[in-house]
Amino acid sequence: MFLRSCEEEITTPLKGKTTGHIPLWLQGTLLRNGPGTLKVGSMSFDHMFDGSALLHSFKISEGTATYQCRFVRTDTYKRNQAANRIVVTEFATESVPDPCHTIFDRFTAFFKPLEKLSDNTVVSVYPMGDEIYTFTESPIIHRMDPKTLKTLERKDLTKDFAIVNHSAHPHILPNGDMFENAHIVGSMKPRWQMHPAYMHSFGITENYFVLIEQPMTISLRTVLWNVFLDKPFASALQWYPKLETNIVLISRETGEEVRRYITETLFYFHVINAFEHDQSLVLDLCTYKDAKILNGMYIKAMQSIQSNADCAEWFRARAKRLEMPLEAPAMTFVEAKLLADIGCETPRIHYDMYNGRSYRYFYAISSDIDNIKPGAVVKVDTWTGDYKTWFEADSFASEPVFVPEPQAQEEDAGILLCVLLCGSHACRISLLLLDARTMLEVGRVTFDTPSPAPKCFHGWFISERVQP
Questions:
Q1: 200 marked as part of a ligand binding site
Q2: In this predicted model, what pLDDT tens digit does every residue of 240-283 receive, in sequence order?
Q3: 467 Cβ neighbours under 8 A, 6+ residues apart
């Protein structure tokens, strides 16, 4: 699914075929972000993180939905399109010289290395106040029009804050505050000054920021060298299989590091949730035993995924829980306990009510590619370890986004929104609705598109429901 490339944008809302039931209370727009094309001209990207950002929109209204998609007009996208080749180096893809640039342009660019960095915001999409932005891990974000999907503004966060990168998953509080957009609220010293840990996401509780200092580090020396030589960022990542993982708590009140714990060697992308309970801090996250998943996300590896027996192990993520006593001595070892023995990635919860609070359920996509139900949608009960799944042959779902019912009393009273791709029909995409309680299908809207529909990474639902 990640090997598909969108060849034609859909700027006019496309109507689809509705089956089942779309609740009338469900009004709003599901936005999704991810790699939209793996090629520019005759050149191809080398990694799933490198494809040009494509924003998808599913507008839900009056018991049905429409679909649109449009590439984010990043500087990288515009330069690549103008040159008809990859002229901006990505996470794992090396560029070629830009024929649109003169020799003088290339000479002066050497002395302005940061201007050469990719601004391809391909990972996620989040609200900031009443505006919508696409994100990646570089300090560039793009403001988008949620109705037309036009790119409205490019924001360089380094002009306001002393940062060189940021998480692709900021946290949105109930009052609308976003951590990562206002000011520096906390800091920590890395274990190795020139090798900070790679962090794709972090946790937040009532009193703490929770940072996971995994043994996947970024060599700052290599980063600087790569910037000047226009080499991919991926070569700066270094995995240390014999080192343990540190969990760092930073006070939200003072911004200071207050405690550090040790746990097993692990690699992670996504925190599920974190909360304080009975004088302990609980952290749930989707873990891998090593960082080989990054190798599995190279396009060549994806093309041979069915014949490579190692790939199944690379992608085998498991949800684990760490319970850290808040009064424990520094560097206390904490066991990572299995929450459920099923593959889990791109986890979501009832975010508005339970982010940073004690919760019971989370929803994810099964990462067990050798399972008889690959790509199933999963619901995990963290209290019991039980899980439910939804699966349909020849269908592959995206990250499930939870939308609560009006006046919902139960944590799982709501609808899961998933984007569904069809294995045998590249030019077909569906919006799937599941009952979050039962994991049974409620309805779906299916769209036949003029070109292949690629798989996306992350999304956000913008509710337009009128509050009583």
A1: yes
A2: 999 999 999 999 999 999 999 999 999 999 999 999 999 999 99
A3: none
8 Å CB contact between 318 and 287: yes
Position 20, amino acid: G
Q: Does the annotation place 183 within a ligand binding site?
A: no
Q: Name the residue ranges covered by the structural domains of the chain.
A: 10-463
Q: Which amino acid is at 338?
A: L
Q: Hey, what are 20's tokens? A: 């089942």
Contact 100, 82 (CB under 8 A): yes
Task: Name, in order, each residue with C-beta under 8 angstroms of 69's C-beta and a sequence gap of 6 or more.
Answer: 6, 9, 10, 36, 54, 55, 56, 57, 149, 449, 453
270 annotated among ligand-binding-site residues: yes
CA distance 454 to 42: 19
> Is the separation of the CB atoms in 354 and 273 below 8 Å?
yes
**Residue that is written with structure tokens 């003169």 in the block:** 102
Q: What is the pLDDT of residue 466?
A: 57
Q: Which two tokens stand for residue 202?
A: 């972090």
User: Hey, what are 322's tokens?
Assistant: 């760490």
* Residue 384 DSSP one-character state: T
- Span 22-42, pLDDT tens digits: 999 999 999 999 999 999 999
pLDDT over threshold 60, residue 106: no
In order of 35, 141, 393, the CA distances from 123 in angstroms are: 8, 11, 27
DSSP class per residue in 109-157: HHT-GGGGS-----SEEEEETTEEEEE-SSSEEEEE-TTT--EEEEEEG
Tokens of 411: 């944590």
Overall average pLDDT of the 420-445 stretch: 98
Phi (first) and psi of residue 228, to 5 degrees: -70, -35
CA distance 159 to 139: 10
Between CA 17 and CA 445 the distance in angstroms is 5
DSSP 94: -
Closest CA to 218 of 243, 241, 242, 192: 192
Residue 312 CB partners (closer than 8 Å, separation 6+): 368, 369, 370
C-beta of residue 273 within 8 angstroms of C-beta of residue 356: yes
Q: How does pLDDT run across 378-391, given as a tens digit for each residue? A: 999 999 999 999 99
Sheet strands (E) in 278-423: 280-288, 318-325, 332-333, 337-343, 345-348, 361-365, 377-381, 387-390, 395-397, 401-404, 414-422
What amino acid is encoded at 317 in this protein?
A
Tokens for 340? Answer: 């459920």
